[in-house]
Specification:
Number of domains: 4
Largest sheet: 5 strands, antiparallel
CATH architecture of the largest domain: 7 Propeller
CATH class of the largest domain: Mainly Beta
Radius of gyration: 48 Å
Structural class: mainly beta
Strand order of the largest sheet: 40-39-42-43-46
CATH superfamily of the largest domain: Integrin alpha, N-terminal
Helix content: under 10%
Length: 743
């Protein structure tokens, strides 16, 4: 079934979700206080362009406004006047009712001496209407619609009669004549009527709005057509308060027409979706549309293939139009509100400028003009960033916008400007930010946003610092979990310099490697920097990200250093800088009885000192402290989990050197620490057969020579930074002295 025309109602300049935009022009029509209410469009002067005709509540004059090729209209012309029919013209429809190829108009007469009629004005193709005819209908007709109700290909009419509470159907013969009306009981106080195929049988059906004024029920009544011009019993569906205008369209794309009703008193619209072949409807879904919602129209305003809704508000100040865009499922989004002209009463929709988009025209009761709203290109704002995202800290990117004429730029961090024609901007953000663009074009707005993520190195945390059991506890190991961090190139390890208190860079570990660092860099912050046999040390960690930026250093972890005084042992606490939880739950005191690597716990404590009463029984023993409470896994899934942090180890002898037999001989070294040359002086001993041996801190012999005198200059330039034992012995004595080499 093909609809022949649709009565529409009230729209204005809109822009919703950047898909619809109208520009408005007003055209005077009539005299003050005549009250424009009726409006229709067709090519009344046969020039191939759509024209307008308008009528009034307080006048019997009809004005003609000729259209041009760009959607504009000429001055209004009085083309029809009948003093015997005043105060009558509330609704117009247009169509070729007599089959002569020229546009005619029809309207109901609810007021005056000739109320209860439908009037047809036959057009002559020049914009004038020299002849007319009228046909009796029910009492107080308020609205008329046209369709082919009996399937003969000729225009018929249906009229909603407010006082007689019925619908009059008049079948046309195609020559301008209509049959005597047949009435079908509908509902009380009908105001508007529309047609549609609600059950999908190909026959035109009817829907009319019913008000509760005079004891009726606020509802929509639906009468199903049989294709022969007859209609079944009316079915009623509850609407909002004061239903007025009604329209139909297939809102959910299921092939069955649905219904929308504007509710004057409840300030909303009711949408009824068809259930299908039986012609029933689901209960109404209501959408807020503002005060005095008196007219509703359906058209695809945004070109997405789904019908939208426009609702007019008569008493708003200024009068407003609410646009509800179809979500694609038969539901509608929240209304977007736009100002309209004063006293908007009727809206029609047609393509006035031939661009393929539906335009709008409104008859404005209080302002005596016609507002024409052309559906123009809406801004479609797009924004993009050059290069790939996210960007590195300190890196610039160019934002480019398009789709509008002027733009407002802003960001969440507070950067903004006024409307400008700028279409690109170079930014170097310090933090991740969201940039927003509002575009204006043809008086409408659209917006777009883009999130620019800035890659900044994360602040890592050390999991634990421990001595390396694999190297006999001679090196500190720094551990962390690399899986917690993103955009990592490598991890940089730092150690605090005991002299300057600065944290010195020791080295870096790739993100692809085991996430631990063995500190063998004793020469950094030397001569014993990081040596666990020498002191406790502070370590930090930082991330070098994939952009080449080094982030903030982590909170420090301080290793433990145990010292002995005979059988008494003491150590510093394992500490973590403020900002990270210290996992320590206590300490274990351990002994390796024979220096064979077989360690066992002597006592657990939460203190920082303890005693080994059997100390003297283990001349070859070795002792250490373990801090408890850790759960660290170096991320490669091949390293066992660290549960304890080891201290240095301590022996009751000179570290790494066997016990020496000391006589009265004395050994002095100057300077100490030294870099290249030291003076070695032996007192209270004969120089006969003296032998010099230099040992590393681990007891490794690194040099041996014969001394021929008690005072000797020893060249140590070839030795690395560190702690050494200088041994001088003969057949009578053995003496030793600790030497620190620091270059």
């Amino acid at each position: 079934m093909k609809k022949l025309f649709t009565i529409l109602a009230f729209v204005v300049c809109i822009s919703a979700n950047a898909q619809v935009c109208f520009t408005t022009a007003n055209y005077p029509a009539g005299q003050p206080y005549q009250g424009n209410t009726a409006l229709a469009c067709a090519d009344f002067n046969s020039d191939g362009r759509l024209d307008l005709v308008t009528g009034f509540t307080n006048s019997s004059i009809i004005y003609f406004l000729p259209g041009n090729s760009i959607g504009g209209f000429g001055n209004s012309i009085n083309v029809y006047e009948n003093d015997t029919v005043p105060l009558s013209q509330l609704r117009f429809i247009s169509g070729d009712f007599n089959g002569d190829g020229k546009a005619d108009i029809a309207y109901p007469l609810p007021f005056g001496p000739n109320n209860g009629y439908i009037v047809i004005l036959f057009g002559d193709g020049t914009g004038h209407f020299p002849t007319s005819n009228s046909f009796a209908v029910g009492s107080f007709p308020k609205s008329v619609c046209a369709d082919d109700f009996n399937g003969d290909g000729k225009i018929d009419m249906a009229v909603a009669n407010n006082s007689s509470h019925n619908i009059s159907v008049l079948l046309g013969d195609g020559t301008g004549n209509f049959s005597t009306h047949t009435d079908f009981i509908a509902g009380s106080n009908m105001t508007e009527i529309t047609s549609g195929d609600f059950n999908g049988d190909g026959n035109a059906d009817l829907a009319a709005s019913n008000s509760n004024n005079g004891g009726g029920i606020d509802s929509v009544c639906v009468l199903l057509g049989d294709g022969a011009g007859n209609f079944g019993t009316a079915a009623k569906y509850l609407a909002g308060s004061g239903p007025y205008s009604v329209c139909s369209n297939d809102f959910n794309g299921d092939g069955y027409d649905d219904i929308a009703v504007a509710n004057w008193n409840s300030n909303n619209i009711s949408v009824f979706l068809s259930k299908g072949t039986n012609g029933d409807f689901y209960p109404a879904t209501n959408y807020a549309t503002g005060s005095a919602s008196n007219t509703v129209v359906s058209a695809d305003f945004n070109g997405d293939g789904m019908p939208d809704l426009a609702v007019g508000n008569f008493t708003a100040a200024p009068d407003a139009v609410h646009i509800l865009q179809n979500t694609g499922t038969g539901s509608f989004g929240p209304a977007t509100v736009f100002p309209g002209s004063y006293g908007g009463w009727t809206i029609i929709s047609a393509d006035f400028n031939g661009d393929g988009k539906p335009d709008l025209a409104t008859a404005n009761h209080d302002s005596n003009n016609i507002a024409v709203l052309l559906n123009v290109v809406a801004p479609q704002v797009n924004i993009s960033a050059s290069g790939s995202l996210p960007i590195c800290l300190g890196t610039s990117t160019t934002l480019t916008v398009s789709g509008s004429t002027t733009y407002t730029w802003s960001s969440n961090s507070g950067v903004s400007n006024l409307y400008d024609t700028i279409t690109s901007a170079v930014i170097t953000p310090l933090i991740s930010d969201v940039y927003s663009i509002i575009g204006q074009k043809n008086g409408c707005k659209d917006s777009a946003t883009i999130s620019i993520a800035v890659v900044t190195p994360e602040v890592p945390n050390i999991c634990m610092v421990t001595t390396d059991s694999a190297s006999n506890y001679n090196f500190n190991v720094v551990c962390w979990d690399k899986t917690l961090y993103n955009n990592v190139d490598s991890f940089i390890v730092y150690r605090k310099d005991a002299i300057s208190s600065n944290y010195l860079r020791l080295g870096a570990v790739s993100k692809n490697s085991l996430s631990e660092f063995v500190d063998t860099a004793f020469s950094i912050g030397g001569p014993n920097g990081g040596n666990p046999q020498y002191s406790s040390w502070f370590y930090k960690l930082a991330i070098l990200d994939t952009c080449g930026n080094i982030g903030e250093e982590s909170p420090y972890h301080q290793s433990m250093f145990v010292q002995e005084n005979g059988s008494n042992f003491s150590w510093n606490a394992y500490t973590v800088e403020t900002g990270q939880t210290n996992p320590i739950t206590g300490y274990s005191f351990l002994r390796d009885d024979d220096n064979t690597g077989n360690w066992h716990v002597l006592v657990n404590t939460i203190g920082l000192s303890t005693t080994d009463p059997n100390y003297a029984s283990y001349p070859d023993g070795n002792w250490r402290i373990d801090a408890l409470g850790f759960n660290c896994t170096s991320s490669k899934n091949t390293q066992s989990t660290y549960l304890k942090s080891h201290s240095n180890t301590i022996k009751p002898v000179v570290m790494g050197i066997k016990q020496f037999i000391l006589k009265n001989a004395q050994e002095t070294i100057f300077p100490n620490p030294a870099a290249n040359i030291v003076t070695l002086n032996i007192k209270n001993a004969s120089n006969e057969g003296m032998e010099l041996n230099i040992y590393s801190i681990m007891g490794v012999l690194v040099r041996s020579e014969i001394l021929k005198q008690n005072q000797n200059r020893i060249n140590i330039a070839d030795l690395r930074n560190g702690i050494y034992i200088i041994e001088v012995k003969s057949k009578d004595f053995t003496v030793n002295q600790r030497l620190i080499i620091q270059k």
